[in-house]
Amino acid sequence: MVAVARPRAEIRAMRRDDLPLVAQMEAVSYDFPWTQGIFGDCLKAGHPCWVMWVEGVMAGYGVLSVAAGEAHVLNICVGPDHRGLGLGRLLMRRLLDIARWNGATRVFLEVRPSNPVAQSLYRSMGFEEIGRRPKYYPAKDGREDAMVMALDLLPAA
Q1: CA-CA-CA-CA dihedral for 69, 15, 41, 47, to nearest 10
Q2: Residues 72-114 pLDDT 10s
Q3: pLDDT 10s digits, 43-73
Q4: For 72, phi and psi rounded to 5 degrees?
Q5: Which percentage of the chain shows pLDDT scores above 70?
Q6: How confident is the model at residue 156, as a pLDDT?
Q7: Distance between CA 24 and CA 36 in Å, rounded?
Q8: Is the CB of residue 22 less than 8 Å from the CB of residue 66?
Q9: How far apart (Å, rounded) are the C-alpha atoms in residues 130 and 44?
Q10: How many domains does the chain have?
């Protein structure tokens, strides 16, 4: 097996002018994508929203909500051309750092049971399933449950 080096990535705060590219990546990545307006609303609400760039190309993004000592990963995506390179882990680490910097001691997220790649990433980072939300996600054949996962954050080393 040949190890593939993770490309150098820049992660910065999402800006309004990033929204068309974010929405485009969302549309090619998910069957039921968020709209550009939803991402814009997240920016307006002051949620920490981040984009990741590799060699001048948007490679991914993440949206976090932080309040009352808790954080919630609302959306995270690595574009199809950049998957399998460790960028999802890098982006999740940044979101966890931002949650910690904003005083969160616990982070939650939902993931589709039909997404084993994401589940594997989250488990490898210490997230554990704590419950299910029945019929949470739209699906081609109706609705799909969400696995609710949580991670207790340790103080930064």
Answers
A1: 0
A2: 999 999 999 999 999 999 999 999 999 999 999 999 999 999 9
A3: 999 999 999 999 999 999 999 999 999 999 9
A4: -135, 120
A5: 95
A6: 62
A7: 8
A8: no
A9: 30
A10: 1
Whole-number pLDDT of residue 3 = 55
Active site residue 110: yes
- Backbone φ and ψ for 117, nearest 5 degrees, come out as -65, -50
Q: Is 93 left (phi over 0), alpha (psi -120 to 50) or beta?
A: alpha
The one-letter amino acid code at 27 reads: A
Please identify which of the residues 70, 110, 129, 136 carries the catalytic annotation: 110
What does the radius of gyration of the chain's CA atoms come to, in whole angstroms? Answer: 15
Query: What tokens does 132 get?
Result: 């299910």
Q: Please give the structure tokens belonging to residue 35.
A: 């709209």
Q: Which domain holds residue 131?
A: 10-152
Any domain includes 5? no
Give me the CATH number covering residue 27. Answer: 3.40.630.30
| pTM across the whole model | 0.92
Annotation marks residue 144 as catalytic: no
- Which residue in 122, 128, 129, 144 is the catalytic one? 122
